[in-house]
Amino acid sequence: MISRLRGKIWHIDDKSVILDVAGVGYKVSLTDTDLAEIASSLAMTSEVTLWTHLSVKDDALDLYGFINKTELDFFGLLISISGIGPKKALGILSVAPVETLKKALRSRDTSYLTQVSGIGRKNAEKIVMELKDKFVAIEGNDDSSSLREESDVVEAIKSLGYSPAEARDALQKISPSITKVGDRVKEALKMLGKKK
Predict the structure, then answer these.
(1) 69-195 architecture in CATH?
(2) How far apart are CA 148 and CA 26, in angstroms?
(3) If you placed Cys at 50, which of 65, 95, 153, 184 could pair as Cys (CB 3.0 to 4.6 Å)?
(4) What is the distance between the alpha carbons of residues 196 and 181, in angstroms, rounded to a whole number?
(5) CA distance 2 to 19
(6) How far is the C-alpha of 121 from the C-alpha of 117, rounded, in Å?
(7) 149 DSSP β-pair partners
(8) pLDDT digits (tens, 9 = 90+) for 9-35
(9) Where does CATH 2.40.50.140 sit in the chain?
(10) Contact between 170 and 188 (Cβ < 8 Å)
């Protein structure tokens, strides 16, 4: 997994940058906000560090980048929701800052989500419902590692052949007293094994 890249901006377009890292050009899709910040504040020869998520598909390897780790963690949480892929998650993060989105989702305000192409009122309500429990679990905790850990557990279960929905369902049934990522994955797999 490519988690972080540091290099010089080689090219900028309306949705991505080409980041030159030791002579290799990585195309990294960014939020509108991060693109604007890079375009306005950095010279093409300046180095930039991006937190990244590598999306692996049958026909493509796509990199999604973020200037700060909080955005990456929230992105991971969004893509753990059934029907929200990396492009929609990036679109959601382009609408408003993470803290604004969190407040809107906690108060069940779907107006930010419906601004994203492909997300209607019903999908926005579904996203709010699925994130509600996760926000309650981390309420008052500013450490974004909790979000990343949830995403890591879902990704680990998915990599073993289970669907995103199965992974999330199992994750929701795990006791909150089990906190380590590895232990949460093992517990989820036990639950999924009982279903078969």
Answers:
(1) Orthogonal Bundle (1.10)
(2) 23
(3) 65
(4) 23
(5) 13
(6) 11
(7) none
(8) 888 988 999 999 999 999 999 998 888
(9) 4-66
(10) yes
Q: Which residues pair with 25 in a beta bridge?
A: 20
Torsion of CA 125, 127, 129, 130, to 10 degrees: 160
User: Within the chain, which residue ranges are assigned CATH 1.10.150.20?
Assistant: 69-195
- Residue holding tokens 């991006």? 50
Domain boundaries 4-66, CATH class: mainly beta
Find the helix packing angle between 69-79 and 98-106, rounded to 10°: 40
Encode pLDDT of 47-105 as tens digits: 899 999 999 988 889 999 999 998 999 999 899 888 889 999 998 898 878 888 887 78
Provide the token pair at 192: 């999924």
N-term to C-term CA, the chain: 30
**Whole-number Å distance between alpha carbons of 22 and 44:** 15
Provide the residue count of the chain.
Answer: 196
Max Cα-Cα span within the chain:
56
**Gyration radius of the chain over CA positions:** 17
Identity of residue 59: D
